[in-house]
């Protein structure tokens, strides 16, 4: 049996997190929730209908992650409360020393991020103002592929005990490209393995504004080609576009945020720059723990 989720306070104890990660690695489980906010969890009166998932390396969690989450929670199609968000960290390479921040350090930062996300959403005009309107989980998985993570989450009674739950995967445009890349689906190397995902769930894609991924027109054209049937030879289906939503990312004039910029600010011990890129709790933890001072 998995251990009950920690409180956010115990998620700042690195020995506790190391113990939890070792126990998870040696168990047959492929998913575990390590922390849930609010804690303890209030009694839920309404069955969960939608689970939002942000799957990232969180190295570290940034204000770009915050923007993706708050945008989905506040602006996605209307759904009954509670809304539930899972911050998911994959540990499939746990036998290798993760760089540049260890998994337990990332999980500690994720717990600060989760607390600040709840405050951010609750404090907004469109926000949820009652305890239990928003539930945030911090979890780990051994699965590497998108479709396998979705399948494992479908099997979790904590989410589905009152009926089927739609998953909304919060991604960047670069992740959408990887999701629809046939290289990841051996042995046939077609998109057929994605059929079940798009029948049941959705993907909410934040546009990337950097040159590497093209501009708005190029990104919309990529999705339009799916709608036009140009991926059918690979096993893609036109109707998948109804389950893919492109949303705006960084607005004009807003700070450009990347994990590289965060690490540079941390290495320079530039607290002011750091707090523009990550939330205050995450910034304070990075400085306290002296993270990212040496890049590998």
TrEMBL record:
<protein>
    <recommendedName>
        <fullName>Nicotinamide-nucleotide adenylyltransferase</fullName>
    </recommendedName>
</protein>
<comment type="pathway">
    <text>Cofactor biosynthesis; NAD(+) biosynthesis.</text>
</comment>
<keyword id="KW-0808">Transferase</keyword>
<dbReference type="GO" id="GO:0005737">
    <property type="term" value="C:cytoplasm"/>
</dbReference>
<dbReference type="GO" id="GO:0000309">
    <property type="term" value="F:nicotinamide-nucleotide adenylyltransferase activity"/>
</dbReference>
<keyword id="KW-0547">Nucleotide-binding</keyword>
<keyword id="KW-0548">Nucleotidyltransferase</keyword>
<dbReference type="GO" id="GO:0005524">
    <property type="term" value="F:ATP binding"/>
</dbReference>
<dbReference type="GO" id="GO:0005634">
    <property type="term" value="C:nucleus"/>
</dbReference>
<keyword id="KW-0067">ATP-binding</keyword>
<dbReference type="GO" id="GO:0009435">
    <property type="term" value="P:NAD+ biosynthetic process"/>
</dbReference>
<keyword id="KW-0662">Pyridine nucleotide biosynthesis</keyword>
<dbReference type="InterPro" id="IPR005248">
    <property type="entry name" value="NadD/NMNAT"/>
</dbReference>
<dbReference type="GO" id="GO:0016887">
    <property type="term" value="F:ATP hydrolysis activity"/>
</dbReference>
<keyword id="KW-0520">NAD</keyword>
<dbReference type="InterPro" id="IPR014729">
    <property type="entry name" value="Rossmann-like_a/b/a_fold"/>
</dbReference>
């Amino acid at each position: 049996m998995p251990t009950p989720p920690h409180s956010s306070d115990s998620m700042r104890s690195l020995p506790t997190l190391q113990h939890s990660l070792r126990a998870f690695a040696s168990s047959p489980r492929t998913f575990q929730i390590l922390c849930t906010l609010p804690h303890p969890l209030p009694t839920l009166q309404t069955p969960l209908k939608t689970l939002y998932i942000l799957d990232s390396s969180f190295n570290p969690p940034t204000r770009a992650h915050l923007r993706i989450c708050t945008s989905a929670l506040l602006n996605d199609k209307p759904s009954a409360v509670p809304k539930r968000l899972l911050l998911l960290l994959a540990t499939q390479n746990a036998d290798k020393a993760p760089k540049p921040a260890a998994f337990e350090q990332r999980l500690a930062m994720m717990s600060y991020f989760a607390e600040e996300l709840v405050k951010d959403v609750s404090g907004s005009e469109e926000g949820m103002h009652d305890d239990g309107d928003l539930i945030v989980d911090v979890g780990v998985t051994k699965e590497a592929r998108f479709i396998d993570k979705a399948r494992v989450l479908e099997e979790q009674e904590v989410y589905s005990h009152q009926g089927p739950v739609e998953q909304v995967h919060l991604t960047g445009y670069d992740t959408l490209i990887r999701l629809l890349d046939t290289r990841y689906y051996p042995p046939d190397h077609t998109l057929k393995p994605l059929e079940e995902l798009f029948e049941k769930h959705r993907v909410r894609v934040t546009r990337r504004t950097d040159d590497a991924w093209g501009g708005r027109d190029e990104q919309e054209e990529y999705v339009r080609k799916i709608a036009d049937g140009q991926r059918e030879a690979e096993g893609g289906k036109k109707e998948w576009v109804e389950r893919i939503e492109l949303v705006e990312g960084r607005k004009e004039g807003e700070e450009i945020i990347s994990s590289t910029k965060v690490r540079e600010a941390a290495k320079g011990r530039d607290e002011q720059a750091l707090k523009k890129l990550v939330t205050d709790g995450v910034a304070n933890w990075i400085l306290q723990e002296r993270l990212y001072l040496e890049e590998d």
